[in-house]
Design a protein that fits this description.
This protein has 79 residues and is mainly α. The chain has a single domain, classed as Cytochrome c-like domain (Cytochrome Bc1 Complex, Chain D, domain 2), CATH 1.10.760. It is 57% helix and 0% strand. Helix 2 packs across helix 4. The chain is globular and about 30 Å long. Keywords: Heme, Iron, Metal-binding. Pfam families: Cytochrom_C (PF00034). It comes from Poseidonibacter ostreae. InterPro entries: Cyt_c-like_dom (IPR009056), Cyt_c-like_dom_sf (IPR036909).
Length: 79
């Protein structure tokens, strides 16, 4: 699984290195540890996490498998 390719969909809003607040509204994800990323992505997926970007992110992660979320979390935690 190519985590960098998966992150390509994220980079449009979060920046190539996770350095930007998505659409000027989200938290900067650069520097997050793997567990925090997994918690956030699974929370977006099940609707238990998120603020102003909750609706946008739910759509982004709705079809991601646990393996894809794990790979993304590993990749993001190393940005």
């Amino acid at each position: 699984m190519n985590a960098q390719a998966l992150f390509g969909a994220c980079a449009g809003c979060h920046g190539q290195n996770g350095e930007k607040p998505a659409l000027g509204k989200s938290q900067v994800i650069q520097g997050w540890d793997k567990a925090k990323v997994i918690e956030a992505l699974n929370g977006y997926k099940d609707g238990s996490y998120g603020g102003v970007m909750k609706g946008v992110m739910k759509g982004q992660v709705a079809t991601k498998s646990d393996a894809e979320i794990d790979a993304l979390a590993e990749f993001i935690s190393n940005l």
